[in-house]
């Protein structure tokens, strides 16, 4: 009998150094599933994330060179820990999956070159993974328990990816075929959260801070919802950010206190979430989707998670969102995407064929 496939996955596209080990069942499930029993069964054996928040906090954002230096320092211990926790020494790994883009090029290069060196030393082929594909497949991890099997009635699926660098609405026809319906024409959703946080003098990373403060407000401030009624599936967040700026500038210094900041956070979050949810639901209706999935760092936002969950229930469609620690960058999602790539027929590559590409698109 063919042994299960073991994947070591690496992620260094921005400011998290991450490694994970995943096991993919080589044989189809028995008895076969509704679709004929060919879906991959994937188990996460370890997932290690070393965050760089403490390094970038004092700069109020990610400093690419500092990020790359930290990746260089952290990647070896992070990979060692992932292998040790999974109880799979390096020679027993079948494939090395690595994020090749999009992202910050100095950061990407560290993971990519490390993967190539591992490949050269061990002879194991590489699976180059698009970071956005990682987010797209991240809702399929750890469901339920640690393994997940796709069923026929999940597709078509509307997938919303909301991260620090991207806001993309996707139609997944099945676990292999997907089509981008729309994306942001300016700032990404997470970028808008981060910029509003900075404007309000809140610490980096801004997204979690904005959502924390938003919970403590019952404001009636209304900010605009850019492109909410546009016929396409594109998004725009820079006008919303500017509306927040003008509102702050309009306040008297005496009334610009902590409560005012909480109210602004709440009103901003409501506007951003409203646009994201409205467009997602419209796509669900237009394409007769049976499921919604939500991923990317902003998917950790409680308000967005809750709204989409409630609306999915009303529309009687499935809703998938990763655990919070699978929303922000990690290597488990890179391993998941690699497993689906293998399952969908991708042929792993020689290290000479691999290079980082900061502008890679989904
Ligand atoms: O996916 P991710 O870790 O990195 C990229 O691929 O960009 O996403 C990071 C983004 C940041 O903009 C961060 O502020 C945002 O996700 N984020 C949040 C929350 N947690 C992280 N935004 C809103 N609410 C949150 N709770
Ligand atoms: Zn990401």
Describe the 3D structure.
There is one protein chain. The protein is an alpha/beta fold. The chain has two domains: 5-140 and 329-353, ATPase, nucleotide binding domain (Nucleotidyltransferase, domain 5, 2-Layer Sandwich); 154-322, Nucleotidyltransferase, domain 5 (2-Layer Sandwich). Helix content is 40%, strand content 18%. It has eleven helices and ten strands. It has helices at residues 53-56, 64-86, 105-122, 131-137, 189-199, 206-214, 238-250, 258-287, 302-315, 324-327, 332-343; strands at 5-11, 16-24, 42-51, 95-101, 126-130, 157-162, 167-172, 178-183, 291-295, 318-320. The strands form two sheets. The chain has a five-stranded mixed sheet with strand order 3-2-1-4-5, sandwiched between helices. Strands 8-7-6-9-10 form a five-stranded mixed sheet, sandwiched between helices. Strand 7 (167-172) and strand 8 form a beta hairpin. Helix 5 packs parallel to helix 7 (238-250) and helix 8 runs parallel beside helix 9 (302-315). The chain is globular, with a radius of gyration of 21 Å. The relative contact order is 0.18. Residues 131, 135, 163, 296-297, 329 line the site of zinc ion (ZN).
Q: What is the radius of gyration?
A: 21 Å
Span between N and C termini? 36 Å
CATH fold assignment of the largest domain: Nucleotidyltransferase, domain 5
Strand order of the largest sheet: 3-2-1-4-5
- Oligomeric state of this protein: single chain
Order of helices and strands: EEEHHEHEHEEEHHHHEHEHH
């Amino acid at each position: 009998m063919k042994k299960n496939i073991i994947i070591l996955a690496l992620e260094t596209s921005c400011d998290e150094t991450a490694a994970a080990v995943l096991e993919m069942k080589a044989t189809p499930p028995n008895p076969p599933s509704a679709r004929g029993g060919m879906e991959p069964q994937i188990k996460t054996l370890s997932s290690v994330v070393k965050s760089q928040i403490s390094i970038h906090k004092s700069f109020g954002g990610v400093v690419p060179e500092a990020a790359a230096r930290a990746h260089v320092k952290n990647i070896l211990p992070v990979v060692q820990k992932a292998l040790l926790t999974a109880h799979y020494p390096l020679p027993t790994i079948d494939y090395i999956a690595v994020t090749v883009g999009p992202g910050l090029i100095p950061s990407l290069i560290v993971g990519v070159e490390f993967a190539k060196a591992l490949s050269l030393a061990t002879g194991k082929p590489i699976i180059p993974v698009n970071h956005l594909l990682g987010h797209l497949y991240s809702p399929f991890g750890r469901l339920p328990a640690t393994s997940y099997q796709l069923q026929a009635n999940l597709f078509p699926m509307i997938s919303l990816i909301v991260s620090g660098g991207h806001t993309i609405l996707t139609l997944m026809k099945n676990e292999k075929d997907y089509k981008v319906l729309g994306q942001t024409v300016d700032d990404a959703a997470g970028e808008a959260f981060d910029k509003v946080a900075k404007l309000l003098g809140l610490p980096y990373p801004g997204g979690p801070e904005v959502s924390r403060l938003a919970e403590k407000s019952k404001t009636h401030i209304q900010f605009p919802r850019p492109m909410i009624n546009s016929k396409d599936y594109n998004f725009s967040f820079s006008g919303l950010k500017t509306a927040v700026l003008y509102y702050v500038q309009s306040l008297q210094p005496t009334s610009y206190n902590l409560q005012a900041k909480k109210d602004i956070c709440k009103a901003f979050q409501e506007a951003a979430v409203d646009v994201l949810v409205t467009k997602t639901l419209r796509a669900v209706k237009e394409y007769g989707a049976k499921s919604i999935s939500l991923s990317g760092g902003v998917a950790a936002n409680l308000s967005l998670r809750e709204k989409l969950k409630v609306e999915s229930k009303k529309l009687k469609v499935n809703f998938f969102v990763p655990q919070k620690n699978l929303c922000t960058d990690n290597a488990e999602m890179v391993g998941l995407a690699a497993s689906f790539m293998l399952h969908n027929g991708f042929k792993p590559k020689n290290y000479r064929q691999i290079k980082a590409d900061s502008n890679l698109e989904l």
